[in-house]
């Protein structure tokens, strides 16, 4: 079944039906990565260009592995070594890449909105692999897949997202996606890191994390950047950790089946203690595994057989 | 049909017959990149090592996509992260690479003559992907392919190459190739950027661009480097642009069917206005598309079935 | 035949039978790189992640070519551009990679012991591609393969390893491997660069290189780092060269069939003169060629058909 969009820039591009289609496809692709021969010929002869203009290991690797397991041809460009260092503008760079006839380009960029601008300028399909503080839709989709896998349902769950909501593209995409799919989303964190008006995206705000813990099905922690303390957005990591760091003690108030998530990389001892990160509630590594499956699903749905390409 | 050379270092390596052979092969390969499955098994089991000792996006990508569409195995090395940083000399690095039995090595290097030196030292085939201010033969071939595509002929055309001829390997290779193929080549630019004796390569010099515009079939603009102004080779970019920047106004004197070319990356507003770069006369992106086809052709002719390897 | 180990971290992981198995497999794989079609489907659908957290050209290229000639899917990560720059710890990075279901990870790391720590934390197979001053087992195996190829035997040979034994992972792995296989190993070099107790690994020490030259079947030179002179470990490169640099003059005392080896990159004129490095006794480039074959063998034996994976 085709998606209703030809690009994955924002969660807003996807209908509820698209989301269910992506999850179902990802679930069926997940098994490929468990086989002795982890490869299907689905995208043989398709060209994927991974443009990571901002550094990344896990997301780039996840896309690249997904592409190769589908037999696509992949080429990578990174910030360094690119013509953009010669002062070429982004759209010219992308139009040049497009002239080489890729089927899809995957873009990570530090500027919010760059992937949309690119999608508006070229004919190839575009997947946003994270843009500035805007969105990271494939992360939200893999998070949702993980939630569904653990909870066996989506609608009506209560999920808290905790941390630097203001600067987090992961939070933004997750709030939009969860709200769309009928999840009750609560955001929590220092007041300075919760953007005003976040309720308009479909999230409730609660500054006191301890208060909401007992009500949660899922607790999703975000990486806190040391740099934010330097910007005086909170006093220091220790102070942050005291109110929003999750440890075993705090989880005594939680439901038996509370699930802990984190998009990584984890700051052990800051937003989460090692015991919790590695404990039985944590599905942090399942998220990573599902990332490959979700990306395989998106590539297949956009440029595979059923896509009409 | 085999080429008369086993390496593509300079346009001088190629006979007129070789050039026609390359263009014809490229024309037939171009269609592969338009297919839903953009891949043929032509170079399966061949190993190509792309050595980009100087930064590049489009040329490296173009080669890599060409190699993958022909099913070759490709590995890349770049300046950073190479043993050359440990002080190993270039020939030792290349002899080591050769000991791993590549079929072909593609070299970009900031030193003029490096690819020739390498070709003299190793048995693998060598393609020069741009060396210092010496040559960039695959660029010239893709330019010629584009000209032939648009004009449906080569012999007798009049082409101007405008800009920093002195430092341009693109200009050098194009002058040699066009002259070989019976094109009338005129070079233009600030006097300080036209090398003395350029006529010996087969080009006529005209410092007044406006004067020659009406006579041209093709106008090829070169990227002007801001750094050259710092070297006092011309006053500043604005001054350059006033005499050699191409805009709609200047093109009023041009023939209806004048074609605009540029090897990229384009300095919009300096050597060319955005209106002209994106206008109907421009074949800038066709050049990029043809780059993949020309590189596929060269790889095939050097190490494919008919090559005797 | 399976190996008795699932990881290749140290030569100590390998039994004598394993070593002979690896050499025999490598010898049979070597021929693949000589074919017109250098590719077998042996590892189709296997995922190999090459983690070169320390710079390398030849070893990374050798692994990547070996993987591709066996049809594995390969992805690379390097130091720069990795999440480790965001302060993630190594084990978290590797657990994330493992969650993407690679079959094998190849690790180069500047910290001695890092690959062992990784192997203890993840389920994928691990190959050590060089860790700090600890070990470089694939180098020792390719060196042994080269020795066997030239001498047609192993047991009872006499090999000297000369240079900075103290900081050399190549020396360590070679001493362990040669001693295991019944080779008489002598180490030589400035006293400050021979670690006390090296005899316990199975090597004899002789500070006077000239004295032992006539007794040798193989003379293996190590790269000397200019930086060691700055650390006052020897006066300067010239002084080093005078006592331990190998030249034609010194080799007049050598046996007719003395073989010269060097793991590269070579400091021409320091530990070895160009005449000797490029002379008839030198098998330096054979070592590189055998590196691809040995790495193919290891990949095959760990995750190929016969491995039980």
Question: What would you note in describing this structure?
Answer:
The structure is a homotrimer of 309-residue chains. The first copy, chain A, has helices at 16-30, 58-69, 90-99, 114-121, 137-151, 169-180, 209-212, 226-230, 237-244, 248-251, 274-277, 284-303; strands at 47-52, 73-78, 104-109, 125-131, 158-162, 184-188, 203-205, 218-221, 259-261. Chain A has 309 residues and is an alpha/beta fold. In chain A, the strands form 2 sheets. Chain A has a 5-stranded parallel β-sheet with strand order 7-6-5-8-9, with helices on one face. A 4-stranded parallel β-sheet of chain A has the order 2-1-3-4, with helices on both faces. In chain A, helix 2 (58-69) crosses helix 12 (284-303) and helix 3 packs across helix 4 (114-121). The longest helix of chain A is centred in the last third of the chain and has 20 residues, at 284-303. Chain A binds chain B through residues 44-47, 49, 73, 75, 77, 80-89, 92-93, 95-103, 309, and chain B through 33-39, 52, 55-58, 60-62, 64-65, 68-69, 78, 80, 223, 226, 264-268, 285-286, 288-289, 291-292.
Regarding quaternary structure, what we see is homotrimer
Please, how many helices of chain A? 12
Structural class by secondary-structure content of chain A: alpha/beta
Q: What's the count of strands of chain A? A: 9
> Shape of chain A, please?
globular
Q: What is the averaged pLDDT score of chain A? A: 94
Question: How large, in whole angstroms, is the Cα Rg of chain A?
Answer: 19 Å
Strand content of chain A: 5-15%
What summary fits the major beta sheet of chain A? 5 strands, parallel
Terminal CA distance of chain A reads: 13 Å
């Amino acid at each position: 079944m085709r998606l209703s969009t030809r690009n994955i820039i924002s969660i807003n591009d996807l209908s509820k039906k698209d989301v269910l289609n992506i999850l179902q496809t990802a679930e069926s692709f997940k098994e490929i990565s468990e086989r002795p021969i982890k490869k299907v010929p689905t995208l043989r002869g398709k060209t994927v260009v991974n443009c990571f203009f901002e550094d990344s290991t896990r997301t780039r690797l996840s896309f690249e592995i997904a592409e190769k397991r589908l037999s696509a041809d992949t080429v990578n460009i990174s910030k360094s070594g690119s013509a953009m260092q010669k002062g070429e503008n982004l759209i010219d760079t992308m139009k040049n890449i497009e002239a080489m006839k890729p089927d899809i380009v995957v873009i990570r960029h530090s500027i919010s909105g760059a992937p949309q601008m690119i999608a508006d300028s070229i004919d190839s399909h575009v997947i946003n692999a994270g843009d500035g503080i805007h969105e990271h839709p494939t992360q939200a989709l893999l998070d949702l897949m993980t939630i569904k896998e653990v909870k066996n349902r989506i609608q009506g769950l209560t999920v808290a997202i905790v941390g630097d909501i203001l600067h987090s593209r992961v939070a933004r995409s997750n709030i939009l996606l969860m709200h769309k799919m009928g999840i009750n989303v609560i955001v929590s964190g220092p007041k300075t890191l919760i953007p005003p008006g976040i309720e308009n995206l479909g999230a409730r705000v609660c500054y006191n994390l301890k208060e909401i813990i007992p009500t949660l099905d899922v607790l999703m922690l975000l990486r806190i950047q040391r740099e934010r303390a330097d910007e005086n957005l909170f006093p220091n990591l220790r102070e942050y950790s005291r109110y929003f760091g999750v440890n075993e003690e705090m989880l005594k108030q939680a439901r038996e089946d509370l699930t802990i998530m984190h998009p990584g990389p984890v700051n052990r001892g800051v937003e989460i203690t090692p015991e919790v990160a590695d404990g039985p509630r944590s599905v942090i590594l399942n998220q990573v595994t599902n990332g490959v499956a979700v990306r395989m699903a998106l590539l297949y749905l956009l440029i595979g057989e059923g896509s009409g390409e």
